[in-house]
Amino acid sequence: ESETATEAVTTVTPGTAPGFPPFEMKEGGELVGFDVDLLSAVVAAAEGYELGEWQEFDFDSLTPALTGNNIDVIAAAMTINDERDETIDFSDPYYNADQAVLVRADGEFNPSELGDLAGNMVGAQSGTTGETIAKENVESANYNTYDSYVFAVQDLQNGNIDAVVLDVPVARTFADQRPVEIAFVEETGERYGFGVREGDSELQSALNEGLSAVRDSGEYEEIRNEWFGS
Ligand code: GLN
């Protein structure tokens, strides 16, 4: 046992929803990605906290997992918005994104604006901002919901749906790896934050301190370059 008095360290259990590359995904059974590296660096830079074991959920189960105390922080490319802010709190923003409309690369369906989606089959991941946009622009019979964007993109490739609405950086990653392409971008100006329980202002402040420390140290930029290129 150490003889030096040490401050008590609080373990923070993180939750995420893999299948959202390059923010969080499984590689050879390992959870990896920008959010994984960034949150690890942020918590390491925050005094009095250490990161616990990552827990994996479907995206729409993350908020219930947080409010139900199964996890302490959400790191899942989650957009800060008023609706979510009623239930949970967010750290300062750490990444910006817009929405992309992804189609098959065969050129058959080439929408150039949201209005062009009407009458076509559109998919998104349950509980996302992409889902909200899709639902606003097609009849409910023309909307398919998925537990993961991986399944939505698979259905797009298979021809079961005509378009998927999702965050631009992730759409780019899928377009690099599969026969799909971005038809157009809808500028939504979203900003991602780490989610904490409402009123957990100690952790919220610690994350904000950690975030600003990793920005100042250059670590943020290193992690960003690693996952997105410079
Ligand atoms: N940024 C989007 C949202 O918050 C998508 C997040 C995700 O699918 N992981 O809804």
Summed up, what is this model?
One of its GO terms (cellular component) is membrane. With 230 residues, this protein is of the alpha/beta class. Helix content is 34%, strand content 27%.
Describe, in plain words, how this protein is organized in 3D.
- The protein has 230 residues and is α/β, with parallel strands linked by helices.
- The chain has two domains: 10-94 and 193-228, Periplasmic binding protein-like II (D-Maltodextrin-Binding Protein, domain 2), CATH 3.40.190.10; 97-190, D-Maltodextrin-Binding Protein, domain 2 (3-Layer(aba) Sandwich), CATH 3.40.190.
- The protein has eight helices and 14 strands.
- Strands 6-2-7-14-8 form a five-stranded mixed sheet. A five-stranded mixed sheet has the order 11-10-12-9-13.
- A hairpin with a 2-residue loop joins β3 (25-27) and β4.
- The longest helix has 17 residues, at 201-217.
- The radius of gyration is 19 Å and the shape is elongated.
- The N and C termini lie far apart (45 Å).
- Residues 17, 20, 59, 76-79, 125, 128-129, 167, 190 line the site of glutamine (GLN).
- The site of glutamine has 12 residues, from loops.
